[in-house]
């Protein structure tokens, strides 16, 4: 399992990404071939001295400059188009459906459950290996684009529209997804983690995400009070508590996530302290106020609380 | 460019029938326009069909595209062919940049012929999408 998330379309770990990488190589070779022949002909015309034979020149110009590129382009287009139906076909009925909404500058995620419920989480997507999954992509504000280069293609998220995408991961590991459409100040800090794991690990994770917030230690209890008292619950939900805001990411199982702030910082106590106290220095532009006035012990309790929300 | 500098001999062919093709500038725009209309027609039909009518069955959509193509291609080929015949008359040497009716006609004919060839390829590329991608996904 790779621990540094991969974000390369050529380091493919999914059915879609694999055919896209194949397409890339074929296109590259096709492009190089055209370049070589066209430039080769130009060099030939310059280097070979004396008058060129009229008839042959005309044949080379028409053949090398028009007919040959047309044939290569037709072949490349055919190859690329023939790939499309498979890439675009929705995941079969009964596959996991995951709704993802782009929000400046993070990702709201809902897993559709077989019983019709939806489980909310944010900024981290888990997928079972070797199973196709259907994504429903939306936006809550401006245009974003959903892209996990190692797993598949890129799809825009439009306000007022639902786009779809199928991903079919084939290798266990951690991958990085990004917003691929400029959406404002913190666009480059709008990423997410994708964890591809075995069916058992995935089921266990989803079961845990679907549950209410876990019981917490006595030390964390002080943090829960500060969370409630500071107004965090106006923007964040922690299911099982009175916090039910919807402006920001759901924090019910925040402690189980790898990263903070849409894959900006690794999730640990120091980084979380920074995130809360100097939010805008970590990620400028976010719609969460920095809580600079919290005392050190209050911060420590708050961080402890959030960290225990596994 | 003054004539004394560029003493290119004007080909003296076809002077009996002056201006064999009474074509103006718009003549060269026909083929690309037919391609554009064909493209739009295919695109709009596909969009309406996939969104409003029949997701599953694509036959009618493919048949419509076939009909559009059966209209568009002959027009483009006809323009291309008559342009070719016109500019080849007497096999005049390039470039056709002399400011007289003969060279202008050759220029129009040659340009229209090249654009028609391009339009044929572009139209076929449009059709290829409907042949190879047999779904609304
Ligand atoms: Cu963005």
From TrEMBL, chain A:
- Report how it sits in the membrane: Multi-pass membrane protein
Occurrences of domain Cytochrome oxidase subunit II copper A binding (ranges): 93-208
What's one Pfam family the UniProt record gives for this protein? Answer: Cytochrom_C
Q: Where do transmembrane segments lie in this chain?
A: 20-47, 59-82
Against InterPro entries, the record matches this protein to: CcO_II (IPR045187), CcO_II-like_C (IPR002429), Copper_CuA (IPR001505), Cupredoxin (IPR008972), CuRO_CcO_Caa3_II (IPR034236), Cyt_c-like_dom (IPR009056), Cyt_c-like_dom_sf (IPR036909), Cyt_c_oxidase_su2 (IPR014222)
One function term, GO molecular function aspect? copper ion binding
Q: Does the keyword Protease apply?
A: no
Q: Which SUPFAM superfamilies match?
A: Cupredoxins, Cytochrome c
Q: Which GO terms describe its biological process?
A: ATP synthesis coupled electron transport
Q: Where in the cell is it found?
A: Membrane
Q: Which residues form the Cytochrome c domain?
A: 218-310
Q: Does the keyword Metal-binding apply?
A: yes
- What UniProt keywords are attached to this protein's entry? Copper, Electron transport, Heme, Iron, Membrane, Metal-binding, Respiratory chain, Transmembrane, Transmembrane helix, Transport
Q: Which domain of life is it from?
A: Bacteria
Sorted alphabetically, the Gene Ontology cellular component annotations on this record are:
membrane
**What family classification does the UniProt entry report for this protein?**
Belongs to the cytochrome c oxidase subunit 2 family.
| Function, as annotated | Subunits I and II form the functional core of the enzyme complex. Electrons originating in cytochrome c are transferred via heme a and Cu(A) to the binuclear center formed by heme a3 and Cu(B).
Supply the name of the protein: Cytochrome aa3 subunit 2
Recorded source organism is Rhodopirellula europaea 6C
């Amino acid at each position: 399992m790779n621990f540094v998330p991969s974000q390369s379309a050529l380091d493919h770990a999914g059915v879609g990404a694999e055919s896209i990488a194949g397409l890339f190589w074929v296109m590259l070779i096709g492009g190089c071939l055209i370049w070589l022949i066209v430039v080769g002909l130009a060099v030939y015309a310059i280097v070979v001295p004396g008058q060129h034979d009229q008839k042959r020149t005309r044949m080379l110009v028409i053949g090398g400059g028009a007919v040959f590129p047309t044939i290569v382009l037709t072949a490349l287009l055919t190859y690329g188009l023939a790939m499309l139906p498979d890439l675009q076909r929705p995941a079969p009925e009964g596959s996991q459906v995951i709704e993802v909404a782009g929000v400046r500058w993070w990702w709201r995620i809902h897993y559709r459950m077989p019983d019709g419920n939806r489980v909310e989480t944010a900024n981290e997507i888990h997928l079972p290996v070797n199973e196709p999954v259907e994504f429903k992509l939306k936006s809550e504000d401006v245009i974003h684009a959903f892209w996990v280069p190692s797993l598949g293609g890129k799809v825009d998220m439009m306000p007022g529209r639902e786009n779809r995408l199928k991903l079919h991961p084939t290798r266990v590991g951690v991958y990085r997804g990004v917003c691929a459409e400029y959406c404002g100040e913190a666009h480059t800090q709008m990423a997410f983690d994708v964890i591809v794991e075995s069916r058992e690990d995935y089921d266990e994770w989803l079961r845990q995400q679907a549950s209410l917030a876990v019981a917490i230690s006595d030390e964390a209890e002080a943090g829960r009070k500060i969370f409630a008292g500071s107004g965090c619950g106006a923007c964040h939900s922690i299911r099982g508590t009175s916090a039910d805001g919807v402006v920001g990411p759901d924090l019910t199982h925040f402690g189980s996530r790898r990263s903070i702030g849409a894959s900006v910082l690794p999730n640990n106590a120091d980084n979380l302290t920074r995130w809360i106290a100097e939010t805008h220095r970590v990620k400028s532009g976010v719609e969460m106020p920095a809580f600079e006035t919290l005392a050190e012990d209050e911060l420590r309790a708050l961080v402890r609380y959030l960290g225990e929300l596994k | 460019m003054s004539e004394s500098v560029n003493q290119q001999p004007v080909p003296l062919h076809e002077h009996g029938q002056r201006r064999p093709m009474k074509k103006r500038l718009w003549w060269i725009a026909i083929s690309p326009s037919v391609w554009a209309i064909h493209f739009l027609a295919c695109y709009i039909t596909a969009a309406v069909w996939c969104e409003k009518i029949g997701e599953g069955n694509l036959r009618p959509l493919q048949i419509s595209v076939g009909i559009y193509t059966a209209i568009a291609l002959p027009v483009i080929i006809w323009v291309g062919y008559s342009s070719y015949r016109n500019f080849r008359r007497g096999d005049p040497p390039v470039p056709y940049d002399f400011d007289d009716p003969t060279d202008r006609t050759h220029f129009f004919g040659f340009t229209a012929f090249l654009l028609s060839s391009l339009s044929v390829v572009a139209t076929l590329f449009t059709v290829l999408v409907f042949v190879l991608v047999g779904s609304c996904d």
